[in-house]
Amino acid sequence: MDRRSWLWRKKSSERSPGETESSVGSISSHSERFSDDQIYLNQNLQSLEIGSKSDPRQSEHNNDVKTLSEKLEEALANINAKEELVKQHVKVAEEAVSGWEKAESEASSLRQQVEILNVRNSTLEDRILQLDGALKECLRQLRQTREEKDQIAHEALEKKNSETESSSTSIDIDLLHKLEMSEKENSDLKLELSSMAEELEIRLIEMELSNQAAEQASRQLLDSVKKVAKLEAECRKLKFSLEKGNDHQTKDRKNSSINERNQMESFVEIDLMDDFLEMERLVGLPESNEVGERLKKEREDELNASRKRLEEAESNLSELENELKTSRERLEEAESKSVRLENELNASRNRLEESESKLGKLENELKPSRKRLKEAESKLAEYENELKASRQRFEEAESKLHDRENELKVSRNRLKETEFKLDECEKELRASIYRLKEAETELEDRENELKPSRKRLERAESKLAELENELKTSRYRLEESETKLVVNENELKKGEFKLAEVENELNASRKRIEEAESKLAKHQNELKLSRYQLDEAESKLAETESRLEMAESRLEAIYIKKEEAESRCKALESELESLLINHEKERDLWGKSEAKCRQLENKVTRLQHELHGRKSVNRPEELRFRRAKQDKELAMAGNKFAECQKTIASLTRQLKTLATIDDFLVN
């Protein structure tokens, strides 16, 4: 509608100035001609009046001329009135033309605005296409990054699993080897302990026997000393009886008796041979030589046997002392080994406590990371919702733009129709102007011919009436076209207002998108700081939207990894709980085994004391039975100790796996 009005206005503006000038000029020339004719007629009337005075015959003819002149005056008055009406119509037409020109200028401005809006719409469409392409590229990059991240995570998990399996197998092999070695060492130690216990028992028995032999020898020595004292008393009696003998012999006897007494007082138990020599001397007397020789031989034999027994007892005592020293050293070594094992157990317990504390710390560290993950997930959900809302707004804006385009197409069609109608009106106006020109020519002919002027005036009046009707119709059409133009202008204003609303919505959506992009950029920068080492290739991306989507994919992958790690941690926690329960049970068993070992040691000490105290014949059999019991108990304790070592090794292996998992989680 507007385009047609604008086109008609252009055509009317192009054509109206000359036509209006020609019409105005023709009307003005026509009015001048009528005024000249009127003056000429007045002059003719005056001349006729003068002629009538001179010529009375022409009075009738003058009367007719007067009547005709009156009629002509009336006709001229009517023509002047109609000319005034024509002038008014011309003014109205000029006003209409000026209105059309204004409408054309407004239509041209509206066209320019519509062109600007079309350009904006085209730019917006290009922008929307670019954004759609960017979104598609971002989605493609997201998919690629997700796939890459999944592949990397899968490969990393496979590597970690293979490494853990290989490490676990190597650790299991090492632990099995160590367990075998420890079992062998335990068996060797058990054999050594059993052999040492047997040797100790044998040596204790030998010590007891040697002690018994020494006691018997000491008793025999005491008996021999008593006998020697009796013999000395008898010898003294014999000496007193034989004092009457030789003086030389008596002196020798006195000296020898004094020396013997001194020696007996100082060395009764040590210098028995001197007493026996004195006895030999006494026996060597002539009165009792034979008896002295016999006693001498007997005493020498007894002394030699007692000396041999004493030497054997001393050698046995030295051997027993050496054996006791070696047994004590072995016991000290066994005690040191037990202390080492206890230290290792304490170290393993400390490691377990440290691992438990580390697990607690890791759990405490995982809590804020889980909170951060939840916050990041909520933020990502908000960003996704905002993106969805912006996309919906884009779609709504596109639909509105399509609607506006359809409305513009309809308005263009209407403008074309109005332009066509205005062209028809222009053609009718041209025809009316042409008719006015014909009327002017006819009026000129009437001026020349007065007689047929009535008919021509009537024709002119009829033509003027027709022209008036045509002008009325043209006015009506102009009013209709003006109303249509007003309606079209209102529709255009509505369209412009709607386009402005759409532009405002698009600007608001752009601002929101920019805000979302800025927020996403901030979030991405925060994520970059924590994951820069893993995502060096991804940091090269320049666009913030792609970075956001990469961050979302990373967050999803990390969330999956965290869930897997949490599940593993839960499984490991359950395993740790079970292991701790088993460890507590093993501690109880270890305490029981230690108590049993102490009981066995106490029993061994008691048996040793009993072995020292007892001197029965059935003692070796009892010792063998007790040794067998002790061996069984020691074997049970060694088995329990091996089981404890196995559990400790398994706990250390699991703690190592937990430490590797903790390092992986920290990374």
UniProtKB/TrEMBL annotation:
It comes from the Eukaryota. Keywords: Coiled coil. The keyword Coiled coil applies. Residues 1-18, 293-312, 322-342 have a biased composition (Basic and acidic residues). Residues 58-234 form a coiled coil. The keyword Coiled coil applies. Residues 1-32, 293-342 are annotated as: Disordered. Pfam families: FPP. InterPro entries: FPP_plant (IPR008587). Belongs to the FPP family. This is Filament-like plant protein.
